[in-house]
Amino acid sequence: MIRSLGDNLVSLVKGNSDLLLAVLAALGFYLYFSYKLKGAAPDGHKCRIPGNLGLPFIGETFSFLSATNSTRGCYDFIKLRRLWHGKWFKTRLFGKIHVFVPTTDGAKQVFSSDFVQFNKGYVKSMGDAVGKNSLLCVPHENHKRIRRLLSDPFSMNSLSKFVTKIDTMLSERMKELERGGKSFALLDFSMKTAFDGMCDMLMSITDDTTLREIERDCTDVSNAMLSLPFMIPGTRYYKGIKARQRLMERFRKLIAGRRSGNRNSRKDFLQSMLDRDLLPPEEKLDDAEIMDNLLTLIIAGQTTTAAAMMWSVKFLDGNREAQERLREEQLEINRKKPEGEALTLEDINKMSYGLKVVKETLRMSNVLLWFPRVALKDCTIDGHKIKEGWHVNIDATCIHYDPDIYKDPLQFNPSRFDEMQKPFSFIPFGYGPRTCLGINMAKVTMLVFLHRLTSGYRWTVDDQDPSLEKAAHIPRLRSGCPITLRSL
Ligand code: HEM
Question: β-strands 482-487, 184-185: how paired?
Fold first, then answer.
């Protein structure tokens, strides 16, 4: 019976192949247009964001974790979904719906209504780890005041002493490594340098034993920021909270020591905060605010700057022309200075090609892959409907690799920054009220590092493996980028 049905079907198809083709074509058109129309709002705007929300709560969390725990890195999860669903897609992670905003218009809209339509998502463990007075956690009004009071020491003019200090530190450390003649993990070097430079600038701490103790505690605090907030011994959260308590105690003693000693003995960030002691409350930070933000600055500044330093070397290794051009600019700066003299802010301002190398490194490395926000009310972004409570991530990586914005986006080409960038197309430091506070410090650290490296040495990258570190939210090479220095 089945066989005769099949035979009949075959003969029907054979006899009516034109008709069948027409039916298939009509069906294809129908499916295509109904898919397009489903995303069209009455006013002609696209509104329905495609994507797979999966099971309630779980959604695609396991796929995300699996990408995060692979050597391709967590952005692989996003890349795959863009292939499946298109530029705009939604997903569900850890019980929340996430949309990754891939356009400059979308980024503009979210950045421009930070705190009004969108806010940073509050995670309990983050507040517990860095403190409720941290810039990362405080509500709008407090954020404005704290940010205003923190900003001055990070302005370009205030950083002149930092330039000289970090230059001297880098110069000595590189000489030592070159003399040793051995391969070393550049990432370890840049983590240590960024950390030590920051602690010197913030609190004038230079003793190596103390620095390593503080660094260990800061790492534990940082690891606790996205952990489950249960105070169970052995967990990341527990370790982070204990480390925070030690750090707060240390900062408290430091502040008390400064208050009881000679106030003018140090010219660092902490002193500039304490010099405001006699001002009215709205013009100064209280001790809890100073301490939480000291910790925030160290955590926000170390891993980011160190990763960017590492990527600059990796990218320059792959583009010898850019490396030579940068070297020539830096040697020219040296030729005009008395031998052995440390760099100044004026020298930094002469590094126009160096700055393009820094920018191109930041464009390609995307140290912070996306910037997370939560929608405070229903809204539309770039024509796409967003519901209150959805997580909206400004996808800096997608924008920085968009071929319509950057020609040959996979090429490391610092000269592309000869031209002015379109608004919101270059956002490694974010934008708006939450723009990175350490933007100048990060750029200066990278420029001084590139100066010392290229004007003093050539290097070989001793492991070309492009794999990324597992379980890291900041992309870094798993190898730590081992290099060997040779004096020029
Ligand atoms: C290459 C290095 C760095 C990169 C790529 C970077 C990137 C960023 C980005 C994108 C944001 C905004 C995130 C958002 O909008 O959600 C941010 C915020 C912040 N960064 Fe950086 N950063 C770097 C270095 C530093 C340094 C050296 C410091 C401090 C010394 C620092 C301190 C901060 C602080 C305190 C915030 C929070 C600002 C606020 O919420 O008002 N960053 N950073």
Answer: antiparallel
CATH number, domain with residue 146: 1.10.630.10
What residues are in contact with ligand 1 under a 6 Å CB criterion?
Answer: 135-136, 147, 198, 296-297, 300-301, 304-305, 308, 362, 367-368, 371, 428-430, 434, 436-438, 441-442
Residue ranges making up the domain that contains 454 = 51-487
Q: What residues form DSSP beta bridges with 457?
A: 487
d(CA 128, CA 348): 38
- How many A from CA of 154 to the centre of ligand 1? 12
Q: Is residue 9 part of a domain?
A: no
Q: How many domains does the chain have?
A: 1
Closest by CA to 227, choosing from 369, 130, 99, is: 130
pLDDT in tens, the chain (488 residues): 334 434 443 344 444 444 444 444 443 433 333 344 333 344 444 568 999 999 999 999 999 999 999 999 999 999 999 999 999 999 999 999 999 999 999 999 999 999 999 999 878 999 999 999 999 999 999 999 999 999 999 999 999 999 999 999 999 999 999 999 999 999 999 999 999 999 999 999 999 999 999 999 999 999 999 888 999 999 999 999 999 999 999 999 999 999 998 655 688 999 999 999 999 999 999 999 999 999 999 999 999 999 999 999 999 999 999 999 999 999 999 999 999 899 999 999 999 999 999 999 999 999 999 999 999 999 999 999 999 999 999 999 999 999 999 999 999 999 999 999 999 999 999 999 999 999 999 999 999 999 999 999 999 999 999 999 999 989 999 999 999 999 99
Ligand 1 pocket mutation pick from 150, 195, 395, 429 by most atoms within 8 angstroms of CB: 429
Give the C-alpha separation, 323 to 329, whole Å.
10
Atom of ligand 1 nearest to the CA of 302: 27
Which ligand 1 atom sits nearest the alpha carbon of residue 371?
16
- Provide the token pair at 24: 């298939």
Query: Residue 46: helix, strand or coil by DSSP?
Result: strand
pTM attached to this predicted model: 0.90
* 2 CB neighbour count, 10 Å cutoff: 6
C-alpha 244 to ligand 1 mean position (Å): 20
- 19 is a domain residue: no
Cα 428 to ligand 1 centre (Å): 9
Residue 301 alpha carbon to ligand 1 centre in Å: 7
Residue 136 lies in a domain: yes
